[in-house]
Amino acid sequence: MSQHTTNIEEEESFAPIYANQEDFNPQDTVSSFLNTTYDPTRLHPLAGLGGGLDYLNLDDDPGVLPGTQGGLLPSRGWSDDLTYGTGLTYITGLSVGGAYGFYEGLRSSPSPAFKIRLNTVLNSMTRRGPFIGNSAGVLALMYNGINGGIGKARGNQDPLNSVAAGALTGALFKSTAGLRAAGSAGGVCAVIAGIWAFGKDAIF
Question: Where are the alpha helices (H) located in 13-158, listed in sequence order?
């Protein structure tokens, strides 16, 4: 029994092991390990951090034109408008066209039978949805491209650029239908672009 007790005491009373005798310092405390100067070169010898750590600063963008939007609808320039504006407009047009096709299919069904009505609704949705979505996407792509070009040429992004870009977009989109149709489309698109631009500035 006494021999077993002696073995337990020997196992519990072990001394700390140090890699080198120089690593041991009786004066070391917890604070001596915590209050040390941070040196990034000690993270890893192959990390290449001898010159310090570099941080990305995304707040300032020298390529952003004056007058670009921030806040609830942030925009860093024409590239953001081109990407997100075109995609959002396409999805919105596709949804609106699908909803209109659904309504049209329900009204124009030649028979009250379920299968025939379902077939009519699906045909109308697949006809109206992609057509309106594609048309809206093309208009948004042309508008954002022209608007960005006008802003780059003027060096400023303001609602007047949007009105001019809307007029040119509508005129070009309907240019093959004749001069009168092109003028009407340009006027309608200019009004819509002006409402969007001035309303966005007033609200956001």
Answer: 30-34, 78-80, 86-107, 114-154
